[in-house]
Design a protein that fits this description.
Elements lengths: L1 H19 L2 H4 L16 H26 L3 H15 L7 H32 L5 H19 L2 H10 L13 H40 L7 H15 L2 H14 L1
Length: 253
């Protein structure tokens, strides 16, 4: 009981010390943020309100937009399939897989990001172009990147589903058609790479399972014996280096 009272007294003393004994902290002025809704009296005010709502919606969907229009899809799927092929579903953790995918995505997309900054963001910040022109110029480098990675079959699928005429060149392809075609192409490419990665590990699983059956060890899980051999193989061939190199070459070359 005495210890409990002493602990309570210590906490009260610390609170009083921080509240009264450190006036420099109390002198800090924190900003006050007010968000409210007012009646729009003019068409200009109504338009600004609509623009703010659209901007907030875009910011909410920004992570999904970034994922669906960059190299993140292919990279994260290949890394996840690699982990699955090794047979250790929890290592590396999901945070490591996602973090590595984000870093590699920024590396791959850095030329596109720099071009968007030079042609759209900086001129717009300097009031040299309007917001509409900035959005159009920002989409051009991104469209060029997606067109390079999109297959004709996937692109033709969405063009036919939209019942549009076949475009004469890539610039005539609408963005709302290009994005789903790009996502579909990235999924197909990622699973192709994953299939190639799975093959050597599948061979190890088959060999280990056959040896265990021939030795009569039916109750020993083959995955328990095969996992160390998979890790040894992966380390000997420097697997992460080869996979990273293949992913980057697939985008850069």
């Amino acid at each position: 009981m005495k210890r409990k009272n002493a602990l309570i007294g210590l906490l009260l003393g610390l609170f009083c010390f921080f509240a009264t004994g450190m006036p420099s902290f109390c002198a800090i002025a924190f900003p006050n943020i007010n968000i409210g809704m007012q009646t729009a009296n003019t068409p200009q005010e109504f338009t600004q309100g609509v623009q703010i709502m659209i901007l907030l919606t875009v910011l909410t969907l920004a992570p999904s937009i970034i994922i669906m229009t960059t190299a993140f899809i292919r990279i994260v799927i290949v890394l996840a399939l690699t982990r699955q092929a090794i047979g250790i579903t929890t290592l590396p953790p999901n945070q490591v897989i996602a973090g590595l995918a984000i870093i590699l995505t920024f590396f791959v997309m850095s030329p596109t990001i720099n071009k968007i900054n030079e042609t759209a963001i900086q001129p717009y910040v300097k009031n040299q172009i309007t917001q509409e022109v900035a959005l159009e110029k920002a989409m051009e480098p991104l469209r060029i990147f997606m067109l390079k990675q999109t297959g004709e079959k996937e692109l033709g699928l969405f063009i036919n589903m939209a019942k549009m005429e076949k475009p004469k060149n890539a610039s005539e392809v609408e963005t709302y058609i290009l994005i789903p075609a790009f996502v579909l192409s990235e999924l197909k490419t990622a699973f192709k790479i994953g299939f190639v990665i799975f093959l050597p590990f599948l061979v190890i699983d088959i060999v280990v399972a056959s040896i265990l059956v021939s030795m009569g060890m039916l109750f020993l899980p083959p995955a328990t014996v095969a996992t160390p051999f998979k890790l040894i193989l992966f380390v000997m061939v420097d697997g992460w280096y080869l996979i990273t190199k293949s992913l980057l070459e697939g985008f850069i070359t």
